[in-house]
Design a protein that fits this description.
Rossmann fold, 7 strands, seven-stranded mixed beta sheet, globular, 8 helices, alpha/beta, 214 residues
């Protein structure tokens, strides 16, 4: 009886088993008017992953959440409902709620400093001028968490950045979104199974078209 009681008390809940749980935050803005914009590429990745896994999003505090699993790992997919510039509120809440260490956080966002389709993963770093990353860093009081930046290009005139990121991809670019999402999803899976360095080796490569232009 005593042995059974000790086993019950020592058993960890899924949320407490932090080593196998990850928060994957895709950044974007809520609302149909933003759904297809460049700034919402983070939402697009999570939507693609949930659809491929038959996992539905539910409205939760500070955002929509879905859960997907892969090789014993559980990924909590978060689409913040706080709008881009206040993404840190949602990320901080769910990191605390899930009791996760910083190494189990991955943030996915757009980046105008990268050519369209180029993906870059880093285990830490500056916000690079991205308001969503800046707010997350401010709320978490650290920049030592992994981020995956997806290039959306910067084909805009001075002063046109806001209209550009809140504009839609070209028809040609829209055709490439699915393969970009697949690559990022695979990178996150590798992050959880073979580690961040191997994941970065996989993700941090130029698209074939960009390699030819280099």
């Amino acid at each position: 009886m005593l042995k059974a009681l000790r086993a019950l008390l020592s058993k960890r809940s899924p949320v407490e088993d932090t080593g196998m749980n990850y928060l994957v935050a895709g950044l974007g803005n809520i609302g149909a008017e933003y759904a297809s914009t460049r700034h919402n590429i983070g939402f697009m990745v999570l939507d693609a992953w949930s659809k491929a896994s038959n996992a539905a999003f539910s409205v939760m505090r500070y955002g929509d959440m879905a859960e997907v699993s892969f090789k014993g790992r559980k990924f909590h997919l978060l689409k913040p409902s706080t709008y881009m510039n206040l993404s840190g509120n949602a990320v901080r809440y769910w990191m605390d709620k899930l009791r996760l260490p910083m190494e189990n956080l991955i943030v996915i966002c757009d980046d105008i400093n990268l050519p369209f389709g180029m993906v870059r993963m880093r285990k830490s770093g500056s916000d690079g001028g991205h308001n969503g990353l800046r707010d997350i860093e401010f709320r978490l009081e650290t920049n030592t968490w992994s981020r995956i930046r997806i290039g959306v290009g910067n084909d805009f005139h001075p002063g046109g950045q806001v209209d550009y990121v809140l504009g839609e991809f070209s028809e040609e670019q829209k055709e490439a979104i699915a393969s970009i999402c697949d690559k990022v999803i695979e990178g996150v899976k590798q992050y959880s199974t073979v580690g961040p360095d191997r994941a970065m080796n996989y993700l941090n490569t130029r698209p074939a078209k960009n390699r030819e232009e280099a």
